[in-house]
Amino acid sequence: MPGEQTLAGRRVRLEPLDWLSHGEGLFAAVGGDVNAGLWTWMPVGPFHSPEALGDFLAEVRENEGWRTMVFRAQATGEILGMAAYMRIREAHGSAEIGCVAFSPKLKRTTKATEALALMAAHVFELGYRRYEWKCNSQNLASKRAAERFGFVFEGVFRNDMVTKGESRDTTWYSITDGEWPVVRAALGHWLADDNFANNGSQLRSLESFRAQ
C-alpha cells in the first residue's frame, strides 16, 4: 500500500497525513477563501474551514482508501500542499495520483516536480505496474502538467460524471512500469543542480531530457 511512509527528497519531504500535526498548516496552504481557486476543476472543495477539510480527508481515507501525502519544504518544514494516492488496486498493481493541491508558493517550482517524482517513484518501487492521472478535460493546466511530467494520454471518458452541477468529461493519462525508467532518468537530469542557471531558470526542459 503506497502512502504509508515518509518520502524524503532534497527539496521537499512528503509525510502521510496526520491531521493533528498537519491540519493547521495544510489548511493555511490550500484552504480558505484565498485558495478557493485551487479547487475549481476538482470534484471537491473549496474548503472554507479547517474542520471541513479535515472531515473530508478523514472520510475519503475511510471510505475510498485514499492515502494523502502532505508536502513540506525540506529546509524550513513549511507545509506547501498535498496530493493523494487514490484508486489503489493492489491486486492489479495500479494506483492513481489525485487531489493535487499546490499552494501558490509551490506552483511551478522545482519542489513541485520533485514532490510528484517522489510519489511516482514510491509506487514503482513497491512493484506497481501502472500509475494514473485523471483530470477534468477542461483543465488545461492539469493536462499540461501530466504531459510535461511524462504521463501518456489514453483517452477521454465523455460524460464521465456530474461535478458541481456540470457535466464533466475526464481525460486519462498513465505511466507504466515499462515507461518509468525513462521518465525517472529524465526527472533526475532535470532536477540536477547543473540544469539551473544562477537565477533559478532551467537550462533544459524536462521534455528534452525524456526525448534524449
Structure keywords:
Aminopeptidase; alpha+beta; globular; 33% helix; 212 residues
CATH architecture: 3-Layer(aba) Sandwich
- Give the termini separation: 33 Å
* Percent of residues in β-strands: 25-35%
Q: If helices are DSSP runs of H or I spanning 4 or more residues, what is the number of helices?
A: 6
**Mean of all residue-level pLDDT scores:** 97
CATH class: Alpha Beta
Shape, per Cα inertia axes:
globular
Care to count the β-strands? Answer: 8
Rg over CA atoms, rounded to whole Å, is 17 Å
CATH fold assignment: Aminopeptidase
Q: Which regions are unreliable across 5 or more consecutive residues at pLDDT < 50?
A: none
Looking at CATH, the homologous superfamily is: Gcn5-related N-acetyltransferase (GNAT)
The run of helices and strands is EEHHEEEHEHEEHH
> The biggest beta sheet, please?
8 strands, mixed
Our count of domains comes out at: 1
Helix-strand makeup class: alpha+beta
Q: Give the fraction of residues assigned to helices.
A: 25-40%
| Strand numbers in spatial order across the main sheet | 1-2-3-4-5-6-8-7
